[in-house]
Amino acid sequence: MSDILHSDAPAPVTLDRREGPYGEVVLRQRGDDFEIIANGCFLMDTSDGRSERLLVDAALAALPADRPGPSVLIGGLGVGFSLARAAAEPRWGRIAVAEREQAIVDWHREGPLAAISGAALADPRTGILTTDLVGHLSTTTDRYDALCLDIDNGPDWTVTEDNTSLYSPAGLADCRARLTPGGVLAVWSAQPSADFEQALRNAGFGGVRTEEVSVARGVPDVVHLALRTD
Fold first, then answer.
1. Gap between the Cα atoms of 83 and 99, Å rounded
2. Looking at the DSSP assignment, which residues form a beta bridge with residue 19?
3. pTM confidence score
4. Are 38 and 162 in contact, with CB atoms under 8 Å apart?
C-alpha cells in the first residue's frame, strides 16, 4: 500500500463503487493515477509503487540463490505492482495471489488496472485465489517459499478488524507453517514497527529485519522481513 495523498493533488473521480462481503470498495482516478479506497480508508494508489516492488524483490533476495523455481504467495492484489514485479522475474516459479475483493480482481481483468497487471495475469505461473488471506493461511495445506503480504497499511493500521489476527501469535504461527524451511515472510507497512519485529521473533522467526523506502513526506514505507530458519 502506498503513501497517503497530499492536499494539493487533483480532485478524484469515482470510476466504480461496490458493496462486498467486507464492506465498500471504491476505484477512483486522480489525474493520471488510480487509487483504491476500502470502507473510506485510503489503501493504495499508482503514483509510486517502489515499496510494493521492494516487497517482492526483498523476499526473493532473502532466498537461497540456488533454490529452483521458488513459489510465492502475494497477499493482496492491490493495484498490481507486486504481482507485476513477480511475473517480470523469471526466477519465480508458482505465483499465487490471494485477493478477497472480487471488485479488485475485476478491475485488473477488465478495468483500467489491467494496464499494470495484464501481462502478469496472463503468465501461466500466475493464479488468483479469490479468498480471504487470513482464512487461507489458517486452512490451506499449501506451502510457499515466500509470503509477500500487503493487505493493510501495516500491522498497527489494519483495514478491517478481522485482519488484526494476522499479526497475532496465532496468525504469525500460520504464516510460519505455510513457509518451506528457509522460506521468507515479507510484510508491507506504512511505518516501521519495533513491536512487530519483536512479535516476529517471538513467533520463532529468524533473520528479522526491516527495509525502508523513503517517501516525499513523513515516515518511510517499510518491508518487514523474517525467515523460517528450521
1. 12
2. 24
3. 0.92
4. no
